Amino acid sequence: MNQFSGTESAIIIGMIVAYIAFTSWLTLRLRSQTSDQFMVAARAMPASVVGVLLMSEFVGAKSTVGTAQEAFTSGIAASWSVIGASIGFLLFGLFFVKKLYNSGAYTISGAIEQKYGKSTMITVSIIMMYSLLLVNVGNYISGAAALSTVLRLNLPVAMCVIAVVSTFYYVFGGMKGVAYVTVLHTALKIFGVALILAVALAMTGGLGPVSANLPDYYFTWDGNIGGVTIIGWTVGTIGAIFSTQFIIQAIASSRSAEEARRSTLYAAALCFPLGLALGVIGISSRYLFPQLDSLYALPVFMSRMNPFLAGLVTTSLVASVFVSVSTVALAIASLIVKDFYVPYFNPDPEAELKMTRLFSLIIGFVPLIFVFFVPAILKLSFFTRALRLSISIVAVIGFSLPFFSSNRGATLGLIGAAAFTTIWYVLGDPLGIDNMYIAMVTPVIIMAAERIFGWKGKATLPAQ
Questions:
Q1: Contact partners, residue 34, CB within 8 Å, separation at least 6
Q2: What is the CATH number of domain 6-376?
Q3: DSSP SS3 for 255
Q4: Predicted local distance difference test score (pLDDT) of residue 234
């Protein structure tokens, strides 16, 4: 890849630093000053802001860089990784949001506790934290890939920069600060993707030469990925939307159930075009730079821009990283505080806010321990969605089939799903069966077996 000169790099660094300084000041101005503001922005956010938050959770740095990376090797079908979120948000808004909002819960574990009981709640909380920790591992890797391309930083240094800045945002901002700064981050991200797409198409001369020179599967609906995997992706994304902690938290921050429903429609509308754009960027990169490391399928176009445009795009990707890391870390902190700290220590509001910020600070740096073990970003992304899909399966069973509302069955089903899905992922999806399907069927089998062979009348809670 082309390298920027010292002067050009200085210009880009200056733009990034100026943006970070401005958004840091904005975060302090909008910072959460109570625990309620930190967790759910005092339930006062408009639908448009919540919609942007929802979209940013599923089209962050990991999905942005990862989708282009997958399209580079597998074709434009990689766009399904984001288009699936559009489908998921639409279904979420039509069938589930109002029930969730009216439950009053702002953690997925809290909502599930209403149906199953405390041990299931704790299991859900631990699995969700495990999943979200891996989500941020992917966010750090993808963000560092973008930074290292234009700033000539090595990956570990770039990851540390991301950890420091994003941790500042959510430790001080909480949900209230993160929400409004995310609107600015997301606007810049959309502009950056549009600019990369324009540069890619200008360099290729349109899609005609790309289509003529790449294998046919690059333009089929399932590409080199396969229909089974794409269906698994889509189902997993839908399931993750129904269960991801930050999605639940953002929904709870809405002014009303109707506003919450409307926000999901905004998110669906934003995801669809972004998915297609990222797919086109990936295949354009393959046509232009066939020997390139696929991780750089999207960032490579920044090195072909003048430093001011590259600075804008780099800043947009950096903003995307900050959004992704901040929202995920905020969700993990909320689970720790709500499910473990508050029940056992019963703190006053001031102590709760103080400890929430301390937990958030630690959470920001933990992913750095694991970032060197997972180079395939999109595969990691869908593994984390598979883990969350198992939670969705259990939640849907609990809300729809009270006959299966066994605390023991749900807890065993979740533990089994987490264990078997992780093993299947580590083994590389044996027999061509995506780990998403393992996450989908395992809790159902275990819960059904517990119901059929378990001790009747024990560990069963009445439906609420």
A1: 42, 349, 353
A2: 1.20.1730.10
A3: coil
A4: 86
